[in-house]
Design a protein that fits this description.
With 520 residues, the chain is of the alpha/beta class. It is built from 16 helices and 13 strands.
């Protein structure tokens, strides 16, 4: 359990009772069980409501890549500045032997910092140790190029030594700043991965205790289908219910990973649990080898990365995510500037067309099912009481749609404000269209009609998508239509890339203008 959340003071029915150290962690004698099942359920309900997962967390892998990019840019800048200073402004006239140590600096510095593991962000690592490794990496680089200058350009050795000292100092200062950020974020819990464990087992207890105080993983709680055998809390982490409770948990969108702590030898039970958990958009891991686990040497975070098999979910692709986010920001910003006059005219038309606000904000499901507020131009008559009513999808000749609203829907111009959702990172230009929580198709909740429905939440929702350009647009009125759309969404997630997104965007306008069949 990470430092961000402390469950040690949570109420427990067995808190004051003695307990044997031997036997499975979820084995409890009858004398230790709550006498009143209703009391036990009430206690679990309170624990489930009080469980909190730290938000606004920092992606450690992405952070390491960002710092590496900053370092490379700084090294190139220092090298260029050094070459300019040594040459007196005429770099071309400088002898190759004099430039060689500087080029060696540009190559060796990134290599040494990478070799010293300075781009692996660890919450449990002390700031002093991180800075020491940074000093070693930069000092080795500075010493190497100074020694090299004595061979290739002995007359310039003092100047190159001065450059080395300056460059080493500048890069060391950068890593001092990095270490400060790591220490601050670690203390606030922002570097901890939020995980839940499925299986109140002895292995789960061992892992939680080993992770205590590391700050790398925050165990929000434990779920186990064997509710009759499960304690109110295990090693300080609360028991929050069964796997069915996990599927409907309101805080599930704040969880990064689900870990099965059931032994892989229990094949039938593992298969049953995976069958349920695969319906979630989250990464699901199965712990493989706990026989060699040494709590003094290995944390839960290490085991997640090394001794666990990913059974479900999408692997992080930093390069793809960076390219997609860059694409979203650049294109959404450009489109916003171009569409600004059009949006101003639409806003005026909506305001004059019917009383009510210009923009309509609706809660939709975003990445991992996180609730987001999606912006649209209002296309229906304003009803202040609509928030308290069940959501009803738009129908043909729907009387709620205004005159200007009908035009905006047919041309999809009502979606233009969602460019703001893209810029703030809640949506992407391309992805599955965001649906409302609990959306129904033919009177049945859509998520219950399609087993893979939650898989569409493994990426950010989009303004347009693969399903939309293939004709699956507008409301869903049949189970077949729901399955078709989800199939397109899952297919997009499997083959999404930079060029595929551009192709979908290029196909969007012709597909929309040629669509006369779908209700929008």
């Amino acid at each position: 359990m990470g430092t961000a959340v402390d469950y040690s003071n949570q109420p427990s029915q067995t808190e004051h009772a003695p307990r044997k150290a031997s036997g499975p962690a979820n084995d409890m004698p009858d004398t230790l069980r709550p006498a009143n099942p209703d009391t036990a359920s009430l206690t679990r309900a309170h624990l489930k409501a009080d469980a909190r997962a730290p938000r606004n967390r920092v992606n450690r892998k992405a952070l390491g890549h960002i710092w590496q990019s900053i370092d490379i840019f700084a090294v190139l800048l220092l090298t260029t500045t050094g070459a300019y200073a040594l040459s007196g402004g005429d770099v071309i006239a400088v002898a190759a032997g004099e430039l060689f140590p500087l080029l060696a600096f540009a190559a060796l510095c990134p290599a040494f910092t990478l070799l010293m593991g300075l781009y692996k962000v660890e919450a449990r690592e002390s700031a002093a140790f991180r800075m020491l490794r940074a000093v070693i990496a930069t000092a080795l680089t500075g010493s190497a190029i100074t020694a090299l200058s004595l061979i290739t350009a002995p007359d310039m050795a003092p100047q190159i030594a001065t450059f080395a000292l300056t460059a080493v100092g500048a890069l060391t200062l950068l890593h001092v700043i990095y270490a400060g950020f790591v220490q601050h974020w670690a203390r606030s819990g922002r570097l901890a991965r939020n995980v839940v464990l499925v299986g109140a087992t002895a292995n789960a207890s061992k892992l939680i205790k080993a992770n205590a105080g590391s700050g790398t993983v925050n165990v929000v709680g434990i779920f186990d289908d064997r509710a009759a055998r499960s304690p109110q809390a295990l090693a300080g982490a609360p028991y929050l219910g069964t796997t069915d409770d996990l599927l409907s948990w309101s805080l599930l969108h704040e969880v990064d990973r689900i870990i099965l702590t059931v032994t892989p030898k229990a094949e039938d039970r593992v298969r049953l649990l995976l069958g349920k958990l695969r319906a979630l958009p989250h990464t699901v891991c199965l712990l493989l080898d706990l026989d060699s686990f040494d709590p003094a040497e290995t944390t839960l975070d290490d085991i997640i990365g090394v001794q666990a098999a990913r059974m479900s979910g999408v692997e992080e692709r930093f390069g793809h995510d960076l390219a997609k986010r860059t694409q979203d920001i650049v294109l959404a910003l450009g489109l916003s500037l171009v569409a600004l006059p059009v949006m101003a005219l639409i806003a005026l038309a909506v305001r004059l067309g019917s009383p009510g606000p210009v923009l309509f904000r609706q809660v939709r499901e975003g990445f991992n099912g996180r609730p987001i507020k999606v912006l649209k131009f209002r296309t229906m008559r304003h009803d202040p009481a609509s928030a308290a009513k069940p959501m009803r999808q738009v129908e043909l000749d729907d009387p709620r749609v205004t005159r200007i609203g009908g035009f905006l829907r047919k041309t999809s111009l009502d979606e233009l404000p969602q460019l703001w959702n893209v810029l703030v990172g809640e949506m992407s230009l391309v992805g599955p269209r965001p649906h409302a929580p609990g959306m129904r198709t033919g009177g049945t909740e859509t998520a219950k009609l399609v087993a893979e429905y939650a898989h569409r939440h493994r990426v950010k929702p989009g303004i347009t998508g693969w399903a939309q350009i293939n004709g699956s647009r507008g409301p869903l009125h049949s189970p077949e239509a729901a399955r078709e759309r989800v199939a397109y969404d899952v297919a997009y997630i499997a083959k999404a890339n930079f060029w595929f997104d551009l192709w979908i965007m290029a196909r969007t306008l012709p597909a929309l203008l040629g669509d006369k069949a779908n209700i929008r």
